[in-house]
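Researcher: Let's continue the batch. This sequence belongs to Chemokine interleukin-8-like domain-containing protein, and it's 102 residues. Same format as the previous ones, please.
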Amino acid sequence: MQLCYGPMACLTLFLLLTATGTGADKVHNCCTEVSRQKITVPIIGARMQKKNPPCVKAVIFETEDGEICSHWKEAWVRHTFIQLEMARRSLNTQNITTTTST
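Model: Same format as before. Here are the structure tokens for Chemokine interleukin-8-like domain-containing protein:
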């Protein structure tokens, strides 16, 4: 059985087969799973991740050991995220005040 009927047909078939991968072939730089466990290492930042399959809704905490994906519904996650946001906003306000004063 012949799969290709000429060089152009073979090239086209090869390009189609290699260009159309499955979702498993794609690399996703997001949280696809979350933890409910409280983080014990120092947290240096945080950001929200929206649900966009295969990515799940999560709070991504930045720690000295790397990023940790946490469940956004956990009370400690919401509390920690709000504290970090308040500290960030306070720092931004101080920087704006210092810049305009000079």
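Researcher: Any comment?
Model: The longest helix spans residues 75-101.
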